[in-house]
């Protein structure tokens, strides 16, 4: 594949840039996430001092030239420890802009936003808004009410309900946790092909009761996984990514997730530009407004013919965010301005982003490719016989066609060290968890029933 990297040519600065004599620093967490690296580069290139909270020495973000300083912190999934650390850091270093980089960070910031607002600059929606979006059952109801299509979904209360559904439903089905909050241990869902496996896999996916209690009454019932109809015609997932201001103004870009790690169930490693149907834009605007949400969003849809069905949302920075930044939508910068409370600067930046997004609409060859896992997946799946020679040749031809228009999340011409660290980070993960590493690349056939069961 090609080695060139496209970098969006930013304007000389938003019209309101002169309002700032010095930038307020930003605190970024979840240092191993590629969305954190994208945020550090976007904000750091605009003169924002970046403090990176890091619990992993080889995290790619730690090696970015745009990171001003690093501090050690607990992981965001360790709710009590992380929240205590946030308060302690804010007491000693008041005035940082704090925006969430994971579901758990988003939940904690909104849950304690009144106290945190005394120490940080926040752009945090109410907790009830996050409860609506982070509980897939409530999200499905909110999407329907807003006029968006959704996949057929069941909410079993117990194993008997699952047995009844198994008798009547069309297979395959997906078993999915209702939320990714609080240590689902990487389980994002699994496809079940056989009726006789459904109860076993659903039961194995239950969240421990003490974890559900820890989330509080706002998330009551989320410990029981939901069941969702599977549309197996394609592994492509349509994605809408954008920003909605507290005023309700929204700007967004679309893309297709073409390849995931692991395949059909994991994080995207290849995306391409896509247009957004107007009915989807209107439905999202209504859903987010009714939920009371504002900030960055990453919404996933599955398609079946003319149907575009919402299946998930990430209400925070997300892994492929560099692709939107390269296409003219500076999501970290918009969030930063919102946290500062400068409405005039945010409005100017939104207008500039709309113009750049319209220009990007014609750049259909733009693509996002995380090169390292893509190369590993193509090589190893061929070696293990899980991908045909014809499919690997098709992917290599596609990558060649897009080689001059690729966004890679780790390597840019101006910031190369995170790419080197990413290689070392993958190697370390392989040495720590070789079976899981190989399984995530799709090189081990699924367990009976077709699902990757949480272990």
Task: Please characterize this protein's 3D structure.
Among the domains are: 21-122, 3-Layer(aba) Sandwich (Rossmann fold); 135-144 and 233-415, ATP-grasp fold, B domain (D-amino Acid Aminotransferase, Chain A, domain 1, 2-Layer Sandwich). A hairpin with a 5-residue loop joins strand 12 (250-261) and strand 13. 39% of the residues lie in helices and 18% in strands. Helix 12 runs antiparallel to helix 13 (343-360). It is of the alpha/beta class.
Global structural class: alpha/beta
Might you state the CATH topology name of the domain at 135-144 and 233-415? D-amino Acid Aminotransferase, Chain A, domain 1
Question: Averaging pLDDT over every residue, what do you get?
Answer: 88
**Share of residues in helices:** 25-40%
What proportion of the residues form beta strands (DSSP E)?
15-25%
Report how far the terminal alpha carbons are from each other. Answer: 35 Å
| Strand segment count | 17
Quick summary of this structure?
This protein is α/β, with parallel strands linked by helices and 455 residues long. The chain has 17 helices and 17 strands.
